[in-house]
Write a structure and sequence with these properties.
Chains A, B: This is Helix-turn-helix domain-containing protein. The structure is a homodimer of 236-residue chains. Helix content of chain A is 52%, strand content 17%. Chain A is α/β, with parallel strands linked by helices. Chain A has a 6-stranded mixed sheet with strand order 1-3-4-5-6-2. The first copy, chain A, binds a DNA duplex (30 and 30 nucleotides) through helix 4.
Chain lengths: 236, 236
DNA sequence: GGAGATCTTCGTGAAATGTCGAAGTGCCAT
DNA sequence: ATGGCACTTCGACATTTCACGAAGATCTCC
């Protein structure tokens, strides 16, 4: 899940810079910890090197979100072009290895995404529940490993930052176990996507289970890699 | 470690807002997910309600880090005054319970902090190594639980975002085990603080172990809660 | 259907950002 | 000590932010 790491790292950097008493110093810290000279950063941003220096020295006390975002993105891009050595170093911190087996991808939207748009992107068919809802994120979960490896408290991690999300369970056989797991768990997602089966294969108990927790259920046969890259690539 | 959660949550919020294509929408999402009306937020920020609306509606395309920080902080403060229900909800996501037993506190500085200043705050004595260094963060670790509970790969999590940090091991007897653990591990901190013992009690092998990895070693008898609150309270 | 609370839109002026380029500092290597 | 590289400082000016308050739009709950 490389792209996931990049995004989380970007968020961490941006957050730290934004909250810092001196955003300039924080900016500098990150540039330096990626071993990037001001000049190169300036070149990639297509601005003059003095601009970078002005920010880092604190002449602009409160830089706008736009440049902070651009600078963070550029720092990461430069590292990616060099093979991503620093991103990979930071990646170890972000994802504990346990996550990689269980959570294939996890993402939060900054603004609501319509459920029917979402369904369209992953080519999903509605099994039950309303489609005029909005979600704030999604999680792609390896169904088997989630049930084998997660303790009940760890199970909550699949919800990321909002329960207003879609949980995509991969390679399900009938979809019954994921729905049961959700039934017995305190948090409820807005939507569950069963990946790898056709509408006819969906277990007949599912609409009943889903209705109790007001969850919309979809299914898709798009393969997991395609789902992840389609969702990642989309800007809503 | 309540304060730790607040900080991490603030960082997450600020990062998401800063990186968003429309910071206004992201701001709105967070305000709403804390169930705070614009009017109340405006009042606490001592600005007129239209200011909030202007931000959220996107009239300001790239708000500065200063206001973003202020808004995030105010949202969190309002929730704290209401008993912190939403902060606690998000806290579940930030800290897996496993962390709480092992990592008492973990913090990153946006700009370098001198090691001797740091030592002063926690009333630490130098055992060996140079003090004219700088660190970018610290981690307070329960020594016993760390060694009992952490697998070798999980051990890396104590480094947070930078290895240029101080690792504070609590309630050590001689300090040997923590130093051995660091010796056999790929990442090296700048500094190790042994909490709970006097300089005379420090195991004689320690200077030798520390020198190999160029680590400065300190010790302090300040109690853990005091250390955490002193470090948290300090703005450098 | 109207009172009230919540939110949006907009004109405005002071202040700050965003960018440039020229000139200056400091530190290695040759 | 003469470059060269990395970085800093600064004046200038166009563009935005920031904050206000008045007026309009929505929604909800009698």
């Amino acid at each position: 899940m490389k792209s996931g790491v990049r995004h989380q790292l970007a968020e961490k950097m941006a957050g730290e810079i934004t909250l810092s008493d001196s955003p300039g110093q924080a900016l500098k810290k990150w540039r330096q910890s990626f071993n990037i000279p001001q000049g190169l950063l300036a070149e990639r941003l297509e601005v003059s090197p003095s601009v970078i220096s002005d920010y880092e020295s604190g002449r602009r006390k409160s830089p706008g979100t736009a440049i902070v975002g651009k600078i963070v993105d550029t720092i990461l891009s430069i590292d990616e072009d060099n093979g991503g050595q620093f991103i990979n170093k930071f990646a170890k911190i972000l994802y504990s290895e346990f996550d990689e087996d269980v959570i294939y991808d996890i993402h939060e939207y900054a603004s609501p995404v319509g459920l029917s748009d979402f369904a369209g992107v992953i080519d999903a068919t509605t099994i039950c529940g309303p489609m005029d809802q909005a979600i704030y994120g999604y999680t792609v979960i390896n169904s088997l490993n989630a049930i084998l490896q997660l303790s009940s408290s760890e199970f909550n991690r699949i919800y990321g930052w909002s329960t207003e999300r879609a949980l995509i369970f991969t390679e399900v056989s009938t979809g019954k176990s994921p729905m049961v797991a959700i039934r017995v768990t305190p948090f409820k997602p807005r939507c569950v996507v069963l990946q790898g089966i056709s509408p006819e294969q969906v277990h007949p108990l599912i609409p009943g289970l889903a209705e109790r927790d007001r969850i919309s259920v979809l299914c898709t046969q798009m393969d997991v890699e395609t789902i992840i890259s389609s969702l990642r690539g989309k800007s809503w």
